[in-house]
Each structure stands twice: as C-alpha cells, then as structure tokens.
Amino acid sequence: MKSLLLATVTAAGLLLAGTAAASEELAKEQKCTTCHHPTEKKKGPSIAQIKVDTKGKSVDAVVAAVKADDAHKRVKASDDDLKKIVAWMMN
Ligand code: HEC
Question: Do the Cβ atoms of 82 and 63 come closer than 8 Å?
C-alpha cells in the first residue's frame, strides 16, 4: 500500500516536471526567453521578477496585460500558448 502511494506521488511529480519542461520549450519557441531570462533583467523583467510582480493576479489577467503591452507587439503566440507560458512564468 505504501509503495503504491509512493509510486503515485512519483508519477504525479514526473508529470508536473514534464509540463514545466514543455512550457519552457514553448517559451523558447515563442522567443519569450530572448527578453525574459530566468533571473537576469534583459529587455524585459526576469522570470523571477515576473513571479513577484504578478503575485495574486490571475493567469488570464496577466495574459491580457502581455497582449496589451507594446513590448509584445511582435509576439505571435496563440492565446492557448500564452496561457501555458504565462502560467509557467508565474509558478
Ligand atoms: C522584445 C522583448 C520581449 C519579448 C520577445 C517578450 N517580452 Fe514579455 N516583456 C517585455 C518587456 C519590456 C516587459 C515589461 C513591460 C512593461 O513593464 O511595460 C515584459 C513584461 C512581461 C510580463 C509581465 C507583465 C506584468 O503584468 O508584470 C509577462 C508575464 C511577459 N512579459 C510575458 C511574455 C511572454 C509569455 C512572452 C512570449 C510569448 C514574452 N513576454 C516575450 C519584453 C518582451
């Protein structure tokens, strides 16, 4: 019983890690990472800074802010992809 529980927890952990890696790939593909470094300020705030700045906001609100921002006028990601990337950046 204990080992079954452990296996379930491990599988859930792997699944989460897989999702995070996929979102990071997506962020690279959509060129978000050219302006957003994990910890250093580039053209845009670091992802660590974004986490702090968007604390308490909803993913939808942040996606709307990203779309409204002139800095992102060359961003072509779909709403779906934006949601995934923004949710990853905020976590
Ligand atoms: C050309 C550079 C550039 C690219 C590419 C870029 N960003 Fe940004 N981003 C910025 C800048 C500059 C800001 C800060 C804008 C401001 O504060 O008005 C910003 C801010 C943000 C914020 C913070 C919004 C907030 O309310 O605090 C998020 C989230 C974000 N970007 C997500 C993304 C995502 C997702 C992508 C890829 C789809 C992306 N960015 C691509 C330059 C960029």
Answer: yes
